[in-house]
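Whiteboard transcription, Tuesday session. T.W. wrote the structure tokens on the left side:
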């Protein structure tokens, strides 16, 4: 996985490319985390060099993948069932058949895991994929599309498992905010996240559309 600096609109942003056909989502995360530290990226919003002490992205919509929940649950409430964990730490929005599961952002609109005094994450090592890959500098179209696709597939699998648990237990799935909520399992078929417990088990080529894979494996 290659993350390289790229001038976009006159500031330093980044691009991604895939060199190894066996690259995993974990390889992508490792490369981006390293780039955040070393590439000298422009910090458009915070106007600072490092993320530490900046909580701007902790007030954004924070979609969760099924693996994010496994990692966070292991650190917060390892024995909790999925719906019980979501009730406490997430926000489930259901509008008709569409479901969006995000981190809970209570009262002041910032994430429930943010330490308000230090403005740092209380579970930084287990923070969700969307947090690890939130870089407030410009990115190329293919870099943005890859991130969106991983997040969407991982969230869709979470919704599937949320519905499956409710079916198994015969209870209603937790919904914090609903508008004619009518989620259906058939709208959430299995994704490449199914049965996986770690990002290192998911190949990027299984996530990408053929078109995006072709674009990402081209060195520009
Ligand atoms: S999980 Fe941590 S990094 Fe992510 S939004 Fe919450 S406080 Fe911020």
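and on the right, the sequence the group agreed on:
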């Amino acid at each position: 996985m290659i993350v390289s600096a790229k001038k976009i609109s006159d500031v330093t942003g980044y691009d991604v490319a895939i060199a190894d056909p066996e690259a995993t989502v974990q390889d992508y995360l490792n490369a981006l985390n390293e780039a955040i530290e070393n590439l000298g990226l422009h910090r458009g919003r915070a106007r600072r060099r490092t993320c530490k002490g900046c909580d701007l992205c902790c007030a954004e919509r924070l979609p969760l993948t099924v693996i994010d929940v496994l990692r966070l649950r292991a650190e917060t409430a390892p024995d909790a069932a999925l719906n019980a964990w979501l009730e406490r730490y997430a926000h489930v929005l259901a509008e008709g058949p569409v479901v969006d599961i995000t981190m809970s952002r209570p009262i002041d609109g910032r994430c429930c895991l943010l330490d308000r005094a230090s403005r740092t994450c209380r579970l930084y090592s287990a923070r969700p994929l969307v947090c690890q890959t939130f870089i407030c500098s410009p990115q190329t179209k293919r870099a943005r599309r890859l991130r969106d696709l991983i997040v969407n597939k991982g969230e869709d699998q979470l919704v599937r498992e949320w519905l499956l648990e409710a079916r198994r237990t015969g209870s209603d799935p937790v919904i914090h905010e609903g508008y004619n909520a009518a989620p259906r399992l058939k709208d959430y078929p299995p994704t490449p996240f199914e049965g996986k417990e770690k990002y290192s088990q998911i190949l990027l080529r299984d996530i990408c559309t053929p078109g995006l894979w072709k674009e990402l494996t081209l060195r520009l």
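Someone added at the bottom: Residues 58, 62, 103, 111, 113-114, 121, 127-128, 131 surround iron/sulfur cluster (CB under 6 Å).
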